[in-house]
Amino acid sequence: MIDLTKTNTRLWQEITDNCGDIRKCFNCNTCVAGCPAAEGNPPLLIRNLVRKVLFGLEDELLDDETPWLCVTCSACEEMCPMGVHPFEICLEIRRWQSKNDETYIPAATAEIFETGHTQAVGQVQEKRKAVGLEAVPPTIIKFPELLKKFQEMLRNTDIVRENDYMFRS
Amino acid sequence: MKYGLFLGCNVPAVRPDVERAIRLTMPRLGADLVDLEGSACCPAFGSFPSMDETASLAISAWNFSIAEETGVDLITECGSCYSSLRIARSKLLESEEKRERVNKLLEPTGKKFRGTVKVRHLIDVLFNDIGPEKIRESIKYPLENINAIVQYPCHTLFPSEIVGFDSPSGRPHMFRELVEALGASVQTYSRELQCCGGAGGFVKGSFADASEFAFKKLRAVKKETDAEFIVASCITCLQHLDRMQDELNKKNNDNAYSLPVFDYNQILAVCMGFQPKEVASISTISRDEFIRRITKVIVS
Ligand code: SF4
Ligand code: SF4
Fold first, then answer.
1. Which of A64, A109, A155, A160 to mutate to test the interface with B (most CBs of B within 10 A)?
2. pLDDT, tens digit, for every residue of B174-189?
3. Domain B132-295 = CATH 1.10.3720.10
4. Predicted model pTM
5. Which atom of ligand 2 is found nearest the CA of A74?
6. Euclidean distance between CA atoms A104 and A86, whole angstroms
7. What would you measure as the largest C-alpha separation in chain A, in angstroms?
8. Band of pLDDT at residue B297, cut at 50, 70 and 90
9. How close is the nearest chain B Cα to the Cα of A4, in Å?
10. CA–CA distance, B82 with B98 (Å, rounded to integer)
């Protein structure tokens, strides 16, 4: 049984900045029917996540890892008949989780801070030369002075300031 | 026609043969490519967009400002880059507050988001700016009597309001016509519009189920079509459909799934007569025999 007197009834206002009015969600299941990650184990069920948010079930929501299964295809975003923006909800829940539990913060974030990329773009020189390309592509990896500016910019963001031990240059 | 080539992370690092193919084929069709010097990750949905929206928009704005300084629209192959940048641009244009916050972060770097350039996907540019006719005239080795299936990149379809260019977005045809311009017949099948399932955290978080999701698609291709190859136009679709055939073969302990998977600009480059070892050399399922059949040239 859920004790509704112990829930955060303002939760939906805290985390749905970019969504439509999620109170309009009538649990129709359209966002689940077309969702690849609804075939996961456990499945990603946006309609249930919307319920958790609306009821203010913070603990359940914080422990729920299913938003991270989303493949970002936006089929739900297209199909939701109520303009709720299910994909954006998925991202909003991830942001809320990352803010409340730093272990959610994906490693890719620190990689982007360090190198500007999620892949070792600067360390595949032979592979690139073999196909007739410049050894290092003309991205931020080739311009250390720009990377420095990029990192300075990110140092002024909340997520880097609050978790500075994760972000090294 | 001039475009700023947005590379992202996966194309230049994991499949540079795709980058090579784009760099060779587009100018041949009159679309000159300019480098976006100093561009970074789009950023990927599973990184900053999942943690801090302002930081995420600042990174996208960093990328936009480079294209704006050069005065060109961004063009990209990767579906995730395309969608991430399109969504970021729309958020920035919609909200003055977000724009101001992001420009404050950008200011010390000497950059600024103005909103003057667009983000285009390669399929859009190939179809709408160049056109199938010009592509048909550019090729040396047509794919006559060869059946294909196409993998429409989900990130170019939905949400149609923000990323769409095909009409209607949910029943796309442009990509199919581009492949037909190479001479191939494109077959349809029940799971044609199912996304590849390779993006985001599905594969990492639920490997067996994510694989099964891709296997369903591959089984439908085998059962319902006579496809001899697959054409993608997204780095994730390209890698995932390649890898998942290999996984399915391992599971079945045979070699029943061996359809070569090409990015569109790769197969275009091969048909134009560019060196396969430069434009289509990295894959799990071998493409050599298929290329030999088209070009009648021995691939070494
Ligand atoms: S499709 Fe929209 S209205 Fe239907 S359950 Fe999902 S979020 Fe709610
Ligand atoms: S965007 Fe995510 S939640 Fe929506 S349908 Fe695709 S995988 Fe499911």
1. A109
2. 999 999 999 999 999 9
3. no
4. 0.97
5. 1
6. 20
7. 65
8. low
9. 28
10. 20
B23 touches chain A (CB under 8 A): yes
Taking CB atoms within 8 Å and a gap of at least 24, the contacts of B250-253 are: B251/B211, B251/B215
What pLDDT, in 10s, does the model give residues A69-117?
999 999 999 999 999 999 999 999 999 999 999 999 999 999 999 999 9
- Distance from the Cα of A12 to chain B's closest Cα (Å) equals 17
Q: What domains does chain A contain, in order, with CATH numbers?
A: 4-104 (1.10.1060.10), 107-166 (no CATH)
| pLDDT value for A18 | 81
Best CA proximity match to B294, nearest among B231, B228, B197:
B228
Model pLDDT, residue A68: 97
Ligand 2 neighbours (beta carbon < 6 A) = A 34-37, 44, 46, 70-76, 86-87, 90
> Which residues of chain B does A87 touch, with a Cβ-Cβ cutoff of 8 Å?
159
Optimal mutation site among B7, B15, B41, B60, interface A, most CBs of chain A within 10 A: B41
What mean pLDDT do residues B244-272 have?
Answer: 98
Q: Using CB atoms within 10 A of its CB, is residue B74 exposed (0-12), middle (13-18) or buried (19+)?
A: buried
CATH topology of domain B2-121: Glutathione S-transferase Yfyf (Class Pi); Chain A, domain 2 (1.20.1050)
Choose which residue among A23, A26, A44, A47 to substitute to test ligand 1 binding: the one with the highest number of ligand atoms within 8 A of its C-beta: A47
* A74 touching B (Cβ < 8 Å): yes
CA distance B90 to A95: 19
Which residues of chain B are in CATH 1.20.1050.140 domains?
2-121
B163 CA to chain A: closest CA distance, Å? Answer: 10
Can you give the pLDDT at residue A2? 76
